[in-house]
Write a structure and sequence with these properties.
The chain is mainly alpha-helical and about 110 residues long. It has helices at about 1-55, 65-70; strands spanning about 65, 90-95, 100-105. A three-stranded antiparallel sheet has the order 1-2-3.
């Protein structure tokens, strides 16, 4: 009799552990997706600012523009480099496709 009760209890416990694991993975996936979107937004802000800068400074042969330079020259505001709880910095390598690199407390582009 106790054996059946223990088996039933273990089965119920296993169901709850499985459910908790599924919920945890869903929350983790949603958070990761939100972070990806925020980083893509930051990268896009830097890329747009760099393109505007280069368009207006055609004689400038810079290969790298930092977020500080873009802010100093009023092509970018520091608010465009903020996520919900972090302020990031970055730079843009001036190539055919404007390669963007970001550094935040919780994220850094590979090669930064």
């Amino acid at each position: 009799m106790y054996k059946k009760l223990i088996i039933a209890y273990c089965y119920e416990l296993l169901k709850w552990i499985t459910l908790a694991f599924i919920v945890y993975n869903i929350v983790l996936a949603v958070h990761s997706n939100q972070l990806t979107k925020r980083i893509e937004n930051l990268e896009n802000n830097l890329k747009i600012a760099a393109r505007r800068y280069i368009k207006n400074h055609a004689d400038d042969d810079s290969e790298i523009l930092t977020s500080d330079e873009l802010i100093e020259n009023k092509y970018l505001t520091s608010s465009k480099l903020k996520t919900s709880n972090d302020t990031c910095e970055g730079y843009v390598m001036i190539t055919d496709d404007y390669e963007v690199f970001i550094h935040c407390n919780n994220y850094e582009t590979e090669g930064y």
